[in-house]
């Protein structure tokens, strides 16, 4: 059964056992998931990878075949991919999900200048490295599996559902590889990247400083050239995810800093590699570099993930760093990985909402309380029999599926932005990814927060008790709208940089394609089409309004957040409708049994989303086009109590 | 400056220092609130009672003068009331608010069978009793201040903003008094109520059992008659707020239990007084009763409030209890206090949203990041200069003011339900209170959760760090949509019991009055009127639909939650418009200076709410009238991953 993706230097070591069953719902954890639930909470907080749902997306909404038709991804044939995802689902369920509670209650702690991660993380991380899960999306030349991002993201989704706090370490390492492969010298690539791809070493991003949170241009960390061609780095960084930990022998810090005489602001920032342990020419580990964790944050959630204050060069006057690429290109270099990183955070919203849904559903099926429409007098019914509980569950399911479709489309576009056969097609897909990324990040993470809240509510009083575990999802989810660019910043990016692409023509063409698709929905889905037309009408009107008011950007900025929500919801609705149309075709062609039930559910969920959730987003239209007037009308005295 | 309301047995000891300043913004805590904010977090999490806002509501939205015109409340003249509220605001800011962080970090803990509350709670509670704040709304015959609920609720708001976990003890005691005064014998009243009114003793409600959460009729705790006319109570209760603690000498538990041969379900439940310490005939404390705390819950929030599992009669075969009123009337008796209790929880949503707003606002004024529209190049601006941050702040402020107006109208109606001069008027106000209570509870607490989340977001990464304190509000707020009847149950109560009042005529008349009021708005507020008309149109249509589908209650139940949100939002919008109309009149009459700024803000907030927040609620209409079809379409297999 062994699967290894990547993991030994420079050899794409993908081996997939041909005995792996395909096409069934996963697997490890499922038995316990469906066991007698009377003994809640122990064990109810398990996880089953939603393989059927993911497969459906990759077949019918954002077809994997469009990727495998390219030269770069020709090897990733759908059955191979589904086998890989099944294995990933099994891994997330059996090796990662059980670490989630431990990670929360034990947390990562600082002890004698070292960060000690939760006990269960050590074995889980070892297994992660052994199986090579970190290598899925990376190029074969570094030992990666060279799978498209659309596939790697599904793996990320499963592992994040298993344990969001755990997943952040690998996420940051992936980001480091991505950045380094685009900007490092061959020597640097050789020295660091294969070990990062395999997961033997970890990577971090060191951007934030106290005065420079979202405003990266305000960074003050210094880099001074040394005689040997390296640099001496001094400064403090905050909010460094997995800045220090005990999971790997080395940690490769990517650090934004200023060279002497660098221009002010974002144009004077350079990127440096600052390893925790210096690497000798032969690749062996040498001396400890002057990089220290100063403290770790006591956070609302993701307790397993150490969020570090890092000090560079405090003991010796400078940590040894290597410049990446040319001086003063740090901001541009960081931008390389921005879509990837932001999509990764959007996926967290999806992943944690899925996990919370998987906890709420069996609870609602098990918990006896009150009577449903058909409950005999004197008896109690499981609360799933109450219409309002059904509404909560279907709201969660529909939102999860819509966000998944959006995030996977985003990954699909990013994959084609690299792999499409000609420049024009690559450019089109890059623009699509640019447009979708703020939607995935902001809407995905807002939905993550909202749906974990719904999951708490389904549990009633028990949801408020920490041992139940559902409150952890609510706490963990809350970081995602904040980091990797707050959701307000995503909305500004959308209206300020993405809508204006090609003078507005790109978004207009994209919306036109969505409308064509809705027009083509079969008559049996007319309720969906009607609701989505109203959604698209509102999107068209607001998009036009934002375009017409570009000269008064404050008014545009004032409408950014509700516009993002409106657009994302409508796009999500159209993607679910795309799935519903495919499901309807398969049903019309005679699908039967469990397949037919699964496909019928896709139609129901798409209809529920379009007819009951999209209209509330349409109701945001007036706040998009209201302008900044009322927002700016009150001064500090008027705002104060 | 001393104020005492109630607090010595049978003597209404209201003394109000005439030197108390009136009409100014409060006071204690304000200085530190406006201090140099650079050293965040210490001290930024302070509280200032929103006296101007509350005064505005009591003067212009739900006029106190309508209450003081009644015989029962003739003594509560507005200046006396405002003096009292200033004192209450000062108390909440200076004595209660500083205990909030302690209460969270230290929490209440179980030690050797005793619950130890946080250190700071002891002095705060002593001060609370000394000042007599628990007595404000209770009748003079028990030593209370006999103020209308509209006034007592403002006091509750301030104390809850100060520390929600602390406020729950007094809230439960108030509920116990309320219930006992309506159903106890004179002997029982004499023995228990004055000490509860003064706060020397505390009260609790013991309803919930593991199998009987929301379904109180499923209670199994037993009560067996003893020869001396008392009863022996045996059973376990869960989720008992302040079931055990060290703040008072005695705790009076009100316990639902079944007598032998009681009919099944809700009709066989009786109410008992079970004191922690038995009370001798002379009023002195006697033997310890057989009531024990078994464990306390480890909760997401409100750590200062001990949530207890209570065992009755486990050591001796029965705790001594006294029957309240007639056998098998427990459910009906509990219903007496339901409006009061549910409104009290709705106020928690308001109070914690206000507190979170008060933390987010100075942070946004202080935190430098990025540039606003007018920031010179190379400089940073406070984040309040960003339109999107303004949107977050104004959304918080507008929601807080709308929920406050609704909750205060609810209290106003409850006060007149007791005090109006004739039966017909009392009945009308009782019905209004019945209609509004589920709105206050469910919408108020949903807004509480949502606005505390916004407050976290305003803080960015710092909001996710527990030391900042804003995450505590987010955790604390999450219980309120759950307890005292989940918000789903509130919505069912609204559509199942409240809309059908008088065959639907009551709600229709109420909505007609709202429309008349909106019709009468001056031309300068036409934008508000237009938006509210659209809101009222949607409410009328959905209300009619729910009425027409009463025979198919599952379809009605399916729309209950979105309908509640729609109705509450529109009512809140009309109440803010009422305030805006009054403000506009005062402005037209020449209000100037700080007053004019304050009044202008009322107009802006009402317009923002009506034109930018109400439309999103209108967007819920299709989900109200969709029926249960799609909600019930999926079976367990289709819902599963």
Query: Stretches of chain A where pLDDT falls below 50 for ≥5 residues?
Result: 1-39
Helix content of chain A: 40-55%
Quaternary structure: homodimer
Through-space gap between termini of chain A: 64 Å
Radius of gyration of chain A: 25 Å
Q: Largest interface, counted with CB-CB under 8 A?
A: A-B, 109 and 109 residues
Structural account:
Helix content of chain A is 53%, strand content 10%. With 641 residues, chain A is of the alpha+beta class. In chain A, the strands form 4 sheets. In chain A, strands 5, 6, 7, 8, 9, 12, 13 and 14 form an 8-stranded mixed sheet that branches. In chain A, strands 1-2 form a two-stranded antiparallel sheet. A two-stranded antiparallel ribbon of chain A has the order 3-4. In chain A, α13 packs across α19 (560-588), α15 (487-498) packs across α19 and α19 runs antiparallel to α20 (593-618). Residues 1-39 of chain A have low confidence and may be disordered. Chains A and B meet through α11, α12, α13, α14 and α15 of A and α11, α12, α13, α14 and α15 of B.
Strand-helix topology:
Two copies of one chain form a homodimer.
Chain A: E1 3-4, E2 15-16, H1 30-33, H2 51-61, H3 65-68, H4 78-96, H5 100-106, E3 109-111, E4 114-116, H6 119-131, H7 149-162, H8 164-183, H9 186-198, E5 202-206, E6 222-225, E7 231-241, E8 251-257, E9 270-275, E10 277-279, E11 285-288, E12 291-296, E13 307-312, E14 319-323, H10 330-336, H11 338-366, H12 387-419, H13 423-458, H14 470-477, H15 487-498, H16 505-519, H17 526-548, H18 553-558, H19 560-588, H20 593-618, H21 621-624, H22 629-632, H23 636-639
Parallel strand pairs in A: 5-8
Antiparallel strand pairs in A: 1-2, 3-4, 6-7, 7-13, 7-14, 8-9, 9-14, 10-11, 12-13
């Amino acid at each position: 059964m062994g699967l290894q993706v990547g993991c030994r230097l420079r050899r794409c070591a993908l081996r997939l056992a041909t005995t792996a069953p395909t096409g069934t719902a996963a697997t490890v954890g499922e038995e316990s998931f469906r066991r007698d639930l009377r003994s809640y909470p122990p064990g109810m907080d398990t996880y089953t990878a939603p393989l059927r749902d993911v497969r459906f997306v990759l077949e019918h909404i954002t077809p994997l075949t469009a990727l495998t038709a390219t030269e770069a991804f020709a090897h990733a044939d759908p059955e191979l991919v589904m086998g890989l995802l099944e294995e990933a689902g099994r891994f997330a369920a059996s090796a990662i999900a059980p670490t989630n509670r431990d990670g929360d209650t034990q947390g990562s702690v600082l002890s004698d200048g070292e960060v000690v991660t939760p006990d269960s993380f050590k074995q889980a991380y070892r297994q992660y490295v052994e199986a090579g899960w970190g290598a899925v999306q990376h190029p074969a030349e570094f030992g990666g599996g060279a799978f498209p991002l659309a596939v790697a993201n599904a793996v990320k989704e499963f592992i994040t559902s298993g344990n969001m706090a755990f997943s952040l370490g690998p996420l940051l390492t992936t980001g480091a590889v991505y950045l380094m492969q685009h900007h490092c010298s061959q020597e640097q690539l050789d020295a660091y990247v294969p070990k990062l791809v395999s997961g033997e070493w970890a990577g971090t991003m060191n951007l934030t400083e106290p005065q420079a949170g979202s405003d990266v241009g305000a960074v003050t960390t210094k880099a001074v050239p040394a005689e040997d061609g390296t640099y001496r780095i001094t400064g403090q960084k905050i909010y460094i995810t997995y800045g220090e930990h005990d999971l790997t022998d080395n940690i490769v810090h990517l650090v934004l800093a200023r060279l002497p005489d660098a221009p002010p602001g974002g144009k004077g920032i350079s990127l440096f590699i600052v390893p925790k342990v210096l690497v000798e020419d032969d690749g062996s580990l040498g001396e400890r570099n002057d990089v220290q964790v100063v403290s770790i944050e006591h956070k609302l959630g993701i307790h397993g993930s150490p969020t570090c204050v890092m000090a560079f060069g405090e003991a010796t006057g400078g940590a040894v760093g290597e410049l990446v690429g040319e001086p003063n290109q740090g901001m541009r270099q960081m931008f390389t990985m921005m879509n990837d990183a932001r999509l990764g955070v959007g996926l967290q919203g999806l992943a944690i909402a899925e996990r919370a849904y998987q906890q709420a559903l069996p609870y609602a099926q098990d918990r006896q309380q009150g009577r449903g429409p058909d409950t005999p007098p004197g008896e109690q019914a499981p609360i799933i029999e109450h219409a309002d509980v059904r509404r909560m569950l279907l709201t969660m399911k529909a939102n999860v599926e819509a966000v998944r479709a959006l995030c996977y489309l985003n990954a699909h576009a990013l994959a084609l932005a690299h792999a499409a056969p000609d420049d024009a097609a690559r450019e089109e897909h890059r623009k699509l990814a640019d447009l979708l990324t703020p939607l995935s990040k902001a809407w995905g993470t807002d939905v993550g927060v909202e749906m974990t809240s719904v999951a708490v509510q389904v549990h009633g009083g028990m949801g408020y008790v920490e041992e139940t575990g559902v409150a952890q999802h609510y706490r963990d989810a809350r970081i995602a709208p904040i980091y990797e660019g707050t959701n307000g910043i995503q909305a500004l990016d959308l209206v300020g940089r993405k809508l204006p692409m090609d003078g507005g023509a790109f978004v207009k063409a994209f919306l036109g394609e969505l409308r064509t698709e809705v027009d083509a929905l079969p008559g049996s889905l007319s309720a969906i089409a009607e609701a989505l037309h109203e959604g698209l009408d509102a999107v068209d009107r607001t998009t036009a309004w934002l375009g017409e008011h570009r000269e008064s950007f404050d008014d545009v900025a004032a409408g950014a957040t509700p516009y993002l929500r409106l657009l994302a919801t409508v796009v999500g609705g159209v993607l679910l409708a795309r799935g519903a149309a495919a499901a309807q075709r398969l049903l019309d062609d005679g699908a039967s049994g469990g397949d037919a039930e699964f496909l019928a559910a896709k139609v129901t969920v798409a209809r529920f989303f379009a007819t009951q959730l999209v209209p509330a987003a349409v109701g945001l239209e007036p706040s998009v086009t209201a302008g900044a007037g009322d927002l700016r009308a009150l001064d500090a005295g008027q705002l104060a109590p």
